[in-house]
Amino acid sequence: MVAPHVPPTVFDTAAYGGMCSSADPRATAAGVQILLRGGNAIDAAIATAFALTVHEPAMSHLGGQGNMVVYMSDSLETTAIDFNACAPAAAHAGMYKWTPGPTQGGYRFVTEGDLNSTGPLAVAIPGNVCGWLTAHQRWGVMPLSEVVGPAVHDARHGSVLTARMAAFIAEHRARLVRYPESAAAFLHPDGRCKRQGDVLIQPHLADTIASIGDERYASFYNGAIAAALVEEVGGAGGILSRADLACYPEALLWVRKPDGVDFKGYRVAGATPSSNALLLNLLAILDGLDFQHTSPLSSDQLHLLVEAMKLAFAERSMHIGDHTQVNVPLAGLLNPAYAAHRRAMIDRSRPSFPGPGDPWAYQDEQPSPDKLLCTAPTTPGVFIGTTHHSHVDRWGNMVSLTQSLGDPFGSCVMVPGYGILLNNAMKLFDPRSGPRPAGINPYRRPIAPWPTLVLKDNTAVMALGSASGSRIPNALAQILVNVLGHGMGLQDAVNLPRVHWSGDELEAESDLPAQTKSELAGLGHEVQYRHANSPWFGGVHAVSRDPLSGRCFGAADPRRAGAVAGITLPGG
Length: 572
Fold this sequence. Notes:
Layout: E1 13-15, E2 18-22, H1 25-36, H2 41-55, E3 65-72, E4 77-83, E5 98-99, E6 110-111, H3 128-139, H4 144-147, H5 149-157, E7 159-160, H6 163-171, H7 173-176, H8 180-186, E8 199-200, H9 203-215, H10 218-222, H11 224-235, H12 242-252, E9 254-256, E10 259-263, E11 266-270, H13 273-287, H14 299-319, H15 330-334, H16 336-343, E12 385-393, E13 398-406, E14 414-415, E15 420-421, E16 452-456, E17 459-465, H17 472-485, H18 490-495, E18 499-501, E19 506-509, H19 514-523, E20 527-530, E21 541-545, E22 552-556, E23 563-566
Parallel strand pairs: 19-20
Antiparallel strand pairs: 1-22, 2-12, 2-23, 3-4, 3-13, 4-9, 5-6, 7-8, 10-11, 11-16, 12-13, 14-15, 16-17, 17-21, 18-19, 21-22
């Protein structure tokens, strides 16, 4: 096969004083503003996180969840903070009636009345505020009240709706109109959807963020905000309690050493086994494949990528979940010998459809009798209302942070007087009866996003992550193959057309070369083509830094209309 022509190089954004990349230019600007005022990458990340709730409210909010990976250059320490949502104490497997029907890549469950996705019963214990403020308290250098300043200003004075946010409002109008606070925020008084160019004025949200800047998270988990949140959810039939919120900071927030795997001479670190086990297993399989003699858009490379994706996603259905309640054979999944065993199953001449393997045979630690051991495949849910941002500062500190509401606008429930949208993370669980890794259980975590750091010689050199649910690990793997395997620049790698497999169909962006499309069909692949630069294939935002020169680089995904910006200080 003759390799197709690789698209011409697009130069990365470059600077020496730091770099921020996010899915909204105004949120990126908030991070850059903090860097210019002397803040570090952690300050910039938290400023961006709050700003995204103002400018991209469909994707994440104060009532959402997420996780992050942080690298501090002075200590050479890499730390993960998992602030994913958890099922309330009263949650149980029979709380929804599952309705059999079409799935979304095999990872979507419909329940009677959509109770797991819309309304108060869809709300899990939110973690965003706790996670963001824990990171700031541990590593930030600017006062929190100053860090949240850009978000407070923009919420109070107005955020112009983008075409993308206006489209989400139109798409989810039937859900939003059911809840008066959400309808008042995103619809006109006569019920018409707010449109591109309309200005969102969010005074309640501005006051809430300002109060968090002064009081930190005490009110959110134990005070007036917690009381209002539980009153709104419980009054409408939800099960979230004051005790659920109160226990989150001490009992449910995780601060831990990240897991990692070697890939093409680098160390790739992720936040939590409930997410990164899949990505790291995929990278372990890909590490043994030689991509130097293939073009990034050739049928040869894409065939190998897709077949490796199938192997990794087959493991997800059996072996990946909340590792505090579910037996996760992480050491086996990342064992090079197991990766080689699975990689040998790839047929280079045709597609295959493998099942899960036995990673327990490749590690010493065996299943705990106190945790669930899955014996039949299950299917966890998928994040759609998600966003990611990446940051690096002049000192080499790095942050990769992903935050989410679950679906766009989450549960569509907004807390009166506070402007807080609440997640619908309960839809990420498998509602069917029986013991399942993704099944509903008190305080269990659902599948989590995939923020990622790349290290070389114990020094962080890249931060990246993405939105778009089950497409996230596949998008990140393609970026890492093309940057670390081919030596491409960040923006060039982000811009390339992508492929995706997560369970029931192979999808690709339509701007793949015609020759590649023909050869993939010749190999036997049935491909569902979506339009070029489709947001369906993720929104990757990445930054990197050369440890020797201090030069920073960044890329923003055109699929999500994001922006990357950096600073170079006088004399820097």
